């Protein structure tokens, strides 16, 4: 028995929701990726097997972390944050570049995205810092201190991965909001966040190009993915064409198994299937909110709230991108899109939330 596990009860509702999303994700990933796997690697299950391996590791990590007292894990938060800074810096000098983005570090045959680890590190570190303020969580100075803590990692990650930097900023804003009873001051945070995103957009011409593509995707060659994704959504109708029957995944939606997978879900399962997936995500977010509300202390409440914010922001942004509500940002759909690093650290976060739930007030 690991520390903190004895005599504690697992949040069964949340665990079931996570397992449903994991199984649903693996099934949809295989359906979406089998064509690309067969064409590129002569193995229709290529992406599925890699994702299944990462998911298995993630489920083991979720179980082990859920059995550990989150107070002990929080003591390691400063070191985890420093490690994330180091890894994010290493990407700038030694990172591998794929599709024009330098976001991966290789360790022998394995590669991973330090930005995914940075999300978990930020949630733990900011929760740890807020808890140590001893309830002095009111005023502009408190908000400024929290934001200053997170700006170094935002700057490093944002230099080559603006979407993840926005998610990290969103997590920080949600944690400040949850711990600060005076909400009017968030107008300043909102203005600062918009200014920060504006500066980052102006620093690289390709980011401004994405805005132009978003406004009129038919006028640009790079708008092809967006247009094909919208075709997939529209052709699915109410009940879809059936699992495995998508036409747009046959090379029309490039790399459909990544951030555009929601469009294939809409095509194969229709509005009903896509809505069911959104409802499951909504239930998971609600459960994380319940865990935060009933946490034994401020630290547990902040950890659960940070995880809730991460999932909510990423789901909303991914679906908004696929439906062309916002410009393309390359954000994946949690538990569903292909990405071993992503699913590994997402399941680790679920383990953290389960650890908080085991110590909640009854």
- The arrangement of helices and strands along the chain is HHHHEEEHHHHHHHHH
Which band does the percent of strand residues land in? Answer: under 5%
**What would you report as the Rg, rounded to the nearest angstrom?**
20 Å
Total of helices:
13
Distance between the termini: 22 Å
Instruction: Determine the fraction of residues in helical runs and give it as a percent range.
Output: 55-70%
Low-pLDDT parts are 1-7
Structural category is mainly alpha
Largest pleated sheet: 3 strands, antiparallel
What spatial form do the alpha-carbon principal axes imply? globular
Mean pLDDT: 84
Give me the count of strands. Answer: 3
* Sheet with most strands: strand arrangement: 1-2-3
Structure characterization notes:
- By secondary structure, this protein is mainly alpha-helical.
- Helices cover 69% and strands 4% of the residues.
- The protein has helices spanning 12-41, 46-66, 70-75, 77-94, 114-131, 140-158, 162-179, 186-203, 205-215, 224-236, 261-293, 298-322, 340-358, and strands at 96-98, 101-107, 110-112.
- The protein has a 3-stranded antiparallel beta sheet.
- A hairpin with a 2-residue loop joins strand 1 and strand 2 (101-107).
- Helix 1 (12-41) packs antiparallel against helix 2, helix 4 packs antiparallel against helix 5 (114-131) and helix 5 (114-131) runs antiparallel to helix 6.
- The protein is globular.
- Mean pLDDT is 84; it is low at 1-7.
């Amino acid at each position: 028995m690991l520390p903190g596990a004895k005599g504690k009860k697992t949040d069964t509702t949340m665990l079931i929701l996570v397992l449903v999303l994991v199984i649903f994700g693996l099934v949809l990933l295989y359906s979406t990726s089998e064509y690309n796997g067969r064409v590129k690697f002569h193995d229709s299950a290529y992406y599925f097997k890699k994702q299944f391996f990462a998911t298995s590791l993630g489920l083991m990590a979720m179980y082990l972390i859920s059995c550990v007292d989150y107070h002990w894990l929080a003591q390691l938060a400063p070191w985890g944050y420093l490690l994330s800074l180091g890894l994010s810096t290493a990407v700038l000098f030694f990172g591998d570049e794929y599709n024009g983005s330098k976001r991966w570090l290789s360790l022998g045959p394995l590669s991973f995205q330090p930005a995914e680890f940075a999300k978990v590190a930020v949630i733990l570190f900011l929760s740890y810092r807020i808890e140590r303020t001893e309830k002095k969580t009111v005023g502009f100075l408190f908000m400024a201190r929290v934001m200053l803590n997170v700006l170094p990692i935002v700057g490093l990650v944002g230099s080559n991965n603006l979407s993840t930097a926005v998610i990290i900023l969103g997590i920080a804003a949600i944690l400040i909001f949850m711990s600060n009873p005076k909400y009017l001051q968030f107008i300043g945070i909102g203005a600062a966040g918009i200014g920060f995103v504006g500066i980052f957009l102006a620093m690289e011409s390709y980011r401004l190009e994405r805005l132009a593509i978003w406004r009129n995707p038919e006028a640009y060659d790079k708008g092809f993915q967006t247009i094909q994704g919208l075709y997939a959504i529209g052709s699915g109708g109410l009940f879809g064409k059936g699992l495995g029957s998508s036409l747009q995944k046959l090379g029309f939606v490039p790399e459909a198994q990544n951030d555009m997978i929601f469009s294939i879900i809409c095509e194969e399962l229709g509005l009903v299937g896509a809505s069911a997936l959104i409802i499951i995500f909504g239930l998971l977010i609600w459960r994380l909110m319940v865990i935060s509300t009933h946490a034994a202390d401020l630290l547990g409440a902040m950890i659960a709230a940070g995880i809730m914010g991460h999932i909510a922001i990423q789901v909303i942004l991914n679906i908004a991108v696929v439906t062309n509500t916002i410009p393309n940002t390359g954000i994946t759909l949690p538990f569903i899109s292909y990405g071993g690093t992503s699913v590994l650290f997402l399941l680790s976060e679920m383990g953290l939330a389960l650890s908080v739930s085991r110590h909640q007030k009854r």
